[in-house]
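Consider the tokenized backbone below.
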């Protein structure tokens, strides 16, 4: 091990109640990894409001632990997906409106996709189906309260925007069940984005194998320029 610190994920950064939002956790770990593309594997739920240990590892990665238990592990990786062209701002806006009008069952107050969140208190990743394309998408604008000192959306929150769209893709394009969790997230951040900038998040289903659902996810500007790309693995709860 090399550098080590103790962190506490505050309660408002939850995914499921009492559980830290996976995309944010992945982004924090990726920020300690010595690579442009990082894969984060989730081993156990990370609690909110409980101190956990964050440490860099000798292979250029990082891990989050509680006592002797590994909660999540980040390692340098290679990106294995090419994103399709982004939907238009109008298409993504309409898809987001459709999601909010009839959200899937099992919605929770998630920092990434909670329906009651505002642009300053959550990422509002409300991804609905895009007619005529095998995509889900949403148009959104991060609030200024989410910005860092330079007015940018922190990398940890850019990672966060690459999490929940995969859930929507699994639910709306595939056979994924309510209560599924992110098992891994591999992401590459391509350029910074500003708080207040119009953004498009979109995702697609890559494959399914029983309880496992493989997604592709991308974050783009309103004009369609890629800002980040990711792959994710979601796993259904046991029956």
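A designed sequence for it:
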């Amino acid at each position: 091990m090399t550098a080590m610190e103790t962190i506490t994920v505050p309660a408002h950064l939850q995914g499921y109640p009492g559980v830290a939002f996976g995309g944010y956790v992945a982004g924090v770990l990726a920020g300690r990894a010595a690579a442009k593309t990082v894969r984060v594997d989730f081993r156990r739920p990370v609690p909110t409001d409980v101190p956990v240990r964050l440490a860099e590892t000798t292979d250029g990665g990082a891990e989050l632990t509680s006592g002797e238990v590994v909660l999540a592990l980040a390692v340098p990786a290679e990106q294995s997906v090419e994103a399709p062209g982004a939907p238009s701002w109008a298409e993504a806006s309409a898809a987001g409106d459709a999601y909010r009008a009839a959200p899937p069952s099992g919605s929770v107050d998630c920092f990434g996709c909670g329906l009651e969140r505002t642009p300053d208190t959550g990422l509002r990743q409300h991804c609905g189906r895009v007619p005529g394309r095998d995509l889900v998408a949403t148009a959104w604008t991060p609030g200024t309260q989410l910005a860092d000192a330079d007015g940018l959306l922190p990398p940890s929150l850019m990672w966060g925007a690459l999490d929940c769209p995969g859930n929507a893709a699994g639910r709306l394009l595939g056979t994924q069940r309510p209560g599924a969790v992110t098992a891994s997230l591999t992401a590459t951040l391509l350029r910074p984005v500003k708080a207040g900038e119009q953004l498009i998040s979109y995702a697609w289903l890559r494959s399914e194998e029983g309880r496992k659902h493989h997604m592709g996810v991308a974050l783009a500007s309103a004009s369609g320029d890629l800002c980040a790309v990711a792959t994710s693995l979601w796993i259904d709860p046991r029956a």
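The chain has a mean pLDDT of 95.
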